[in-house]
Design goal:
- This protein is mostly helical.
- Helix content is about 70%, strand content about 0%.
- The protein has 14 helices and no strands.
- Helix 12 packs antiparallel against helix 13.
- The radius of gyration is 20 Å and the shape is globular.
Length: about 280
Amino acid sequence: MTAKSTKGTLRLESEIEKHRDENNWKKVLELADQLRTKPQRPQSDPAGLETLTNFLIGESKLEQYLEENPPTEQNVGKARNNLSDAKRYLLAAMSGQSSRLGILQETYLLLGKLHFAMGFHEEALNNLQSAGLDALAEKALAHRSLNIVAESFAIRALCLEKVPIPSTSKTKIVEREEQIMRCLETAGDLALLYLQEKDRLHGQSTLSIVSSVSGSTSPMPSADDSRVGPILETALQRAPILHIKNGKLNRAIVQYRNILSSVETSTTQSLRLVCNYNIV
């Protein structure tokens, strides 16, 4: 995600990436404003920097808003009134430069998240389709990108639950249910990978890897360990619950075990209560 830049601009972009990884959106906004107002030199890329800045501002405004106002049905009206500025910046980032900068797909994914928060489920699904979401799951992704893609699979599943099936065929209904499950499971797998990567990058005690030989575990996390956010928490919880409702208890148990043996965070501490309630 780098325009043709001077050394000073490259340092600024590197700092921005660090704060994106940490979800420090206030700082990203501050640095994006510096990037926009930084004096240009002949060898710089003004159009590319403008596109990148629009992307960063749009992303930060979206994420800051959703941190305070989770994307729930109760908040749809509020989101429609308050996310227009974020949407404007993200749309402005979809210029001819965005593909060259490698931010076009993430821009589509963030627009999908924005439209999901606003309750525009079909539009969100179209955004995710335009991003080529399925192919992204097979790629090696940067830390922040991994989070965006994981959330996008969860959003697709949640949108598919809301959008009516254009047929009453039992086959189509089963296909839709299977598609929802695949998306939730992929979102869960990527969420766990994201948390493992977060632990590696930041040295936080977010992991609790269970040793199959000794049965020992790593230390419990600190009190300030980060959550994965409400969208991914929903995906992690919903997939095994749907398996239980469909009579697939074994698959639900396997899913719960994968979650609880792979990561120990404030997210999975709450999941333990869900596990106990549904399995016992």
